[in-house]
Design a protein that fits this description.
heterodimer, A: alpha/beta, FAD/NAD(P)-binding domain, Cholesterol Oxidase, domain 2, 2 domains, 8-stranded mixed sheet, 23 strands, 26% helix, B: mainly alpha, 10 helices, globular
């Protein structure tokens, strides 16, 4: 039996379907679970709010692609507008719009999860086969030296000139054409993401995928059959039309740490931990201007990472410190980051081919919260604490030193009054940055926590098998369960944990 | 429903919005003839889906200030019709976001009067003066609400403006790279 992908905005689905397993979300967590369970003979249906975009449908245009491939048309943010919360909304999930970085969970992080959070099942040994499977699925390989564009080479050049450590990263590209638009999808279909691995395998095993299907509410969470009410979206995914209901014996939430928690909250399910302990793993862009062309917008956007300041085995947090990674973007998204307006803003953007840029990544304390207001609006509360801001100042100084060592004309720190760093003596100004809300271009691409796994419901929202406390047969198999930042890039950790939990679930289901 | 923090306005309490919009409303209604005079006649704007003509004129004035026609990149906001693009964008937003952003436009329109006590409105400022007002009072000012409004509007404007083919030759971007002919980057001399 072969499953199929059905676009509900174009094809009417059978009302009141009944399935063994209903999965909400088709990204790394959901597609992996769907494949494992379908291959074991279960009747699996996956709901995906986004559309199915591959090949030339991925147009490399900012306006259309950020609108279609990201949740809330890429406009989602924390409630004070300080952090732009970027989250995939497309068949295949975040893997379709990420920069293909493969960074498995470190052993020290797992040790932290066991010691601080009592997740004794999450051992290196227990996860090893699932981690290996994830790396196989991703066809994880180091990015070839020849594929490093000037943007990456400059970051490495400056890092090495300072005697600091860095690395060329692992990636999941096969047949990369160097198009440079990974953040808005790869029209060459060169990403080995769930859309081209787990989803075809799940389809072959009979799983069905419904796109343009937004899960609205989950009812009967303790009963034999749970009901998920879903809204059918219009072809562009902006408006909900018809409502449908699907009944399932098992429901797996894998809609990202924001949406999985929001669905539980909206449905009145789970305990007081649901929505709390949100980690946004904030990232802050920085731009350097050179006197020669860099052409960062062609080639692999993110291939080199500065590891000098990472603490992979921090005694309390596991992964800690900060990391600096090259990045680039199409003109639209880069234009949103630059601080200048008017004629000056236009003139500065003429330097676009001479920009080199990086993201500074910060593991964080899981201190944020997702809520749903009475009106139904989602609210993401998160405060950038002083400790993290201290690391941010250190990261800005380090990035600036790297780019100056690589020969940059200046380094731009985006702030209400932008800092231009031209020499070492300018770095003191970084200490004066106030980081007031809604003034700097913080982003989050790796949301975690919100239904964290814990052996007791006093400490988390789901048990170590992923079952949401207070329910029977409702699970979270995505980054919602991670008690701390799992790694600098969550794709491989989510694949690993979802496979681990799916196998575990399979062992408990009646045959 | 999916979240709606698109522009972060949900952070504003109903009371805070009420106070601000009431203030603007009082300025309009209470100041009666004077404010009506300041606002001038309702401008003509054909084919709007969401915005009122006055809201459209306010956003167009902002777009013109942020991306003037003059300068090193010939294309300006008017040529690219960024205000109409905003109207079309809003049409696909949920009603509460439409409502919040339209309130924000009312505040922006009356910004010079409300926050600088000047007897004029935003659309009536010359583009340079409008940019100065927007930067000083909104983008860099002490008010979180005004910074949020500024951030939301400028992000939209920048994304649409720099995604425009008319702009690319001036910034050395050759356009999407997938397809039969991958153009080389535009030589610096011709930018």
């Amino acid at each position: 039996m072969t499953g199929q992908i059905v676009d509900l905005s174009a094809t009417r689905a059978a009302a009141d379907a009944v399935v063994d397993v209903l999965v909400v979300g088709s990204g790394c967590g959901g597609a992996t679970a769907a494949r494992t369970l379908a291959q074991a003979g279960r009747d699996v249906l996956v709901l995906e709010e986004g559309g199915d975009f591959t090949g030339r449908q991925l147009t490399q245009r900012d306006g259309a692609m950020y609108d279609q491939l990201y949740m809330d048309r890429a406009g989602r943010s924390t409630s004070d507008l300080s952090i732009s919360v970027m989250q995939g909304r497309v068949l295949g999930g975040g893997g379709v719009i990420n920069t293909c970085d493969v960074v498995p969970i470190g052993d020290a992080t797992l040790e932290t999860w066991r010691r601080r959070f009592g997740l004794t099942d999450f051992t290196t040994e227990a996860l090893a086969p699932h981690r290996a499977r994830a790396l196989r699925d991703l066809a994880a390989t180091p990015i070839p030296e020849a594929a490093l564009n000037a943007n990456n080479r400059l970051l490495r050049q400056g890092t090495e000139a300072l005697g600091w450590r860095g690395e060329v990263m692992l990636n999941n590209r096969l047949g990369c054409a160097g198009l440079g638009t990974c953040l808005i999808g790869c029209p060459a279909n060169a990403k080995r993401n769930p859309r081209f691995v787990a989803i075809p395998q799940a389809l072959e095993a009979g799983a069905r995928f419904w796109t343009r299907a937004r899960a609205l509410r989950l009812e009967g969470a303790s009963g034999e059959l749970k009901t998920v009410e879903l809204g059918v979206l219009d072809p562009r995914g902006h408006r909900v039309g018809e409502h449908l209901r699907v009944r399932a014996r098992t429901v797996i939430l894998a809609a990202n740490a924001i949406e999985s928690a929001a669905l539980l909250i909206r449905s009145g399910l789970g305990n007081e931990h649901v929505g709390r302990h949100l980690s946004l793993q904030p990232q802050l862009p920085i731009v350097a201007r050179f006197d020669h062309d860099v052409i960062a917008f062609r080639g692999i956007p993110q291939a080199y990472g500065v590891t000098e300041f990472e603490e992979p085995a921090h005694p309390e947090h596991g992964w800690w410190g900060f990391r600096i990674e090259s990045i680039s973007g199409t003109p639209g998204i880069v234009g949103t980051i630059l601080p200048w307006l008017g004629e000056v803003g236009k003139e500065r953007m003429r330097d676009y081919p001479r920009f080199a840029s990086a993201l500074q990544l910060f593991p964080d304390e899981p201190s944020g919260r997702v809520r749903v207001e009475r009106s139904g609006r989602l609210r993401i509360d998160y405060t950038l604490g002083e400790e993290l801001l201290g690391r941010a100042r250190a990261a800005i100084k380090a990035s600036a030193r790297i780019y100056l060592a690589a020969g940059a004309r200046d380094v731009v720190v985006v702030a209400p009054e932008p800092l231009l760093i031209r020499r070492e003596s300018d770095l003191g100004a970084v200490d004066g940055l106030r980081f007031e809300p809604a003034t700097m271009p913080w982003i989050s691409a790796h949301q975690q926590g919100t239904v964290r796994f814990a052996p007791s419901q006093a400490d988390g929202g789901a048990d170590p098998a992923g079952q949401v406390y207070g329910t029977r047969g409702v699970y979270v198999f995505d980054s919602s369960g991670f008690p701390t930042s799992s790694s600098s890039h969550t794709m491989a950790p989510i694949l690993t944990v979802s496979e681990h939990l799916s196998q575990r679930l399979l062992a408990t289901l009646p045959s | 429903m999916s979240g709606s923090d698109r522009f972060g306005f949900s952070v504003l309490s109903r009371r805070r919005w009420l106070r601000l919009v009431l203030g603007a409303g009082v300025a309009v209604a209470g100041g009666a003839g004077m404010v009506r005079g300041l606002r001038g006649p309702v401008p003509a704007s054909p084919d709007l889906w969401v915005l009122s003509p006055r809201e459209h004129a306010t956003f167009a004035a902002l777009a013109r200030a942020v991306f003037p026609t003059a300068g090193s990149i010939p294309a300006g906001a008017d040529q690219l019709d960024l205000a109409h693009a905003f109207d079309r964008f809003l049409a696909d937003e949920p009603p509460w976001n439409q409502a919040d952003l339209r309130k924000a436009l009312l505040l922006l329109e009356l910004g010079p009067l409300l926050f600088e006590h000047r007897l004029t409105t935003f659309p009536r400022l010359a583009p340079e003066a409008a940019l100065r007002h927007f930067e000083d009072v909104w983008a860099r000012g002490p008010s979180l609400l005004r910074r949020q409004v500024a951030l939301a509007f400028r992000k939209f404007l920048a994304l649409v403006y720099f995604d425009s083919e008319a702009v690319w030759p001036s910034i050395g971007y050759p356009g999407p790279s997938f397809g039969a002919t991958v153009s080389p980057p535009v030589p610096e001399a011709s930018r």
